[in-house]
Amino acid sequence: MSAELISSRPVMDAAAMRRAIERIAHEILERNDGLNDVVLIGIRTRGAPLAERIASVAERVEGSAPPVGYLDISFYRDDLRGSLAQPVVQRTEILFDIAGKIVVLVDDVLFTGRTIRAALDALTDLGRPRAIQLAVLVDRGHRELPIRADYVGKNLPTARAEQVVVQLSERDGADGVVVGRLAA
């Protein structure tokens, strides 16, 4: 997608992303007094590798990693209703019970809140966690729903017309966050 952006500007490089992920992992450990009953669930697509990275930091600090799962929200999105577009469906891979657990949902960008609402709906179909917390790499504002993140790598004020693109080495070959406008 970054090739389609015009007048883009980098806002996080690989080092800044690494520091943000480290900080988020430490904040999760601190708030929850370690990893007891904590599970990480990355929202597909880019939330999944971010959840893995947070788990890796937690393992380095605590000596063990929390369970990590991946959530596909394609069929829970409200922006597909009445649309002819077919969602790109990926697998939900949660190989553990979330009932009674502290679920930390992980996503790349928090914008309107609709993705998170869809993820909450999907999670309730899987069980009843004790608590759900939200970790995002970038919070860009412009909420349409009353949703806020518990852990934020970077607050990034943007114009509604701008796009925030998170690039991860696992999917894109390099790490970084850029902001720009889509080409007409």
Account of the 3D structure:
- The chain is an alpha/beta fold and 184 residues long.
- It has helices at residues 14-31, 47-62, 114-124, 169-172; strands at 5-12, 38-43, 68-71, 102-110, 131-139, 151-155, 162-167, 176-182.
- It is 27% helix and 29% strand.
- Strand 2 (38-43), helix 2 and strand 3 form a beta-alpha-beta unit.
- The model has no long low-confidence stretch (mean pLDDT 92).
Structural class, by secondary structure, is alpha/beta
Cα-to-Cα separation, first versus last residue: 13 Å
Estimate percent helicity.
Answer: 25-40%
Largest sheet report: 5 strands, parallel
Topology as H/E string? Answer: EHEHEEHEEEHE
* Rg, alpha carbons: 16 Å
The tally of helices reads 4
Q: Spans of 5+ residues with little confidence (pLDDT < 50)?
A: none
Q: What percentage of amino acids are in beta strands?
A: 25-35%
Shape: globular
How many individual β-strands? 8
- Give the overall pLDDT as a whole number: 92
Strands ordered across the widest β-sheet = 3-2-4-5-6
Give a summary of the structure in a few sentences.
By secondary structure, the protein is of the alpha/beta class. It contains 4 helices and 8 strands.
